[in-house]
Amino acid sequence: MDMRRVLFILTLLCGVFALNAANPVKLKSGDKAVFQKEATAKVVIDDHKTVIDRRDQTADVYYGSQSAEEYEKFVNDLDRAHESFITYFNEKRKSGTKMTMAGPDTEAEYTLEVKVTLMNVGNAGGMVWGMNRKAGGAQIEGTMKLVDNATNETVCEFEFEKVKGLMAPVFRGRAISVYRYLADGLLKEVE
């Protein structure tokens, strides 16, 4: 085997490892096969009072100190991003994934509880300097657990870290993007 073939094979292997390592969502415990069942899971996301990275304050304190309107705008932007998470998951799932996500007020067999423990809200700086498309994007870390509503038992649990969205000039765009990347990571992990 000549040196070019060896280098080509090594490059391919590195690419495969990089693709597998790229998913920020990892199964922590339980059986993810439940996502292959025809069922509905309501999505409940706990992030309105998450810790804001580099501010060492919860979102309600950080934005509330600016004004009540700023905090309300932050919450509204996140609520819109939650809807985007649900829509993206349902539209992008492959035929093997039969579970459907729904809003938090839906009657469902399961509940997907998403707990965001740390959020970097990002900035629009990357837009000004023409950096890569994720420079200045929001970033989140936390856990997700799927709970069977009939038994109140956790079926499976995931952890996610450094889920980074695309840059956008306004927070709403950054939030929507980061939650779409979270849905994408969950899909990659369960399919």
Compute the number of strand runs.
8
Count of DSSP H/I helices: 5
Amino- and carboxy-terminal Cα gap: 36 Å
Sheet having the most strands: 8 strands, mixed
- The coarse overall form would be globular
Uncertain segments are 13-20
Share of helix, binned: 40-55%
Average of pLDDT: 88
Describe the structure.
The chain has 191 residues and is α/β, with parallel strands linked by helices. 40% of the residues lie in helices and 28% in strands. It contains 5 helices and 8 strands. Strands 1, 2, 3, 4, 5, 6, 7 and 8 form an 8-stranded mixed sheet that branches. It starts with a helix and ends with a helix. 29% of the residues are buried.
Attribute tags:
eight-stranded mixed beta sheet; 5 helices; alpha/beta; globular
Produce a short descriptive summary.
The protein is of the alpha/beta class and 191 residues long. It has five helices and eight strands; from the N terminus they run αββββααββαββα. It is 40% helix and 28% strand.
Summarize the topology:
Elements: H1 3-21, E1 25-30, E2 40-46, E3 51-52, E4 57-58, H2 59-66, H3 68-92, E5 100-102, E6 110-120, H4 125-129, E7 139-148, E8 153-164, H5 171-190
Parallel strand pairs: 2-5, 2-6, 3-6
Antiparallel strand pairs: 1-8, 3-4, 6-7, 7-8
